[in-house]
Amino acid sequence: MNNLKFLILILLTLSVGCSSECCLYKPSAKIYLINESSSVVKIVDNSCFEYKMKPGETLIHHESYETEYSKKPTVNDYRPFPDCYRFYYIDNSKCEVSLRDIENYENLKDVSDLNFELTFRFTDEKMENAEPCNIQIAD
After folding, report:
1. Quick one: which H or E segment has residue 42?
2. Helix or strand run (H / E) with residue 9
């Protein structure tokens, strides 16, 4: 009898922890992209969207997508640019990959439930620290 109680307890514990609906959320974000670098910045993967920013330009990107999180996301654990997040500095053939990491953003705001605003700045310092690209892109 004790084995049956133990088995029921294990099954109840597993069923509570394995709900497939617990982790799907659809956050949306308004992302300000500011090019303070001396280079034109262009998207590397054109399958999602295409941006081309001259020095001094600001673009506003809106995104919304459903994805899994271990808990309801806030702006501090939001993951921007889920599929396409590499930008190409035309002047030095390097890719900016830090757009995927929320730590590289500023002015983080929880506007409303699952609705965020954030800012990313392309700078000459980030351009120098960007990763080399092995991608040929036309200007």
Report:
1. strand 41-43
2. helix 2-17
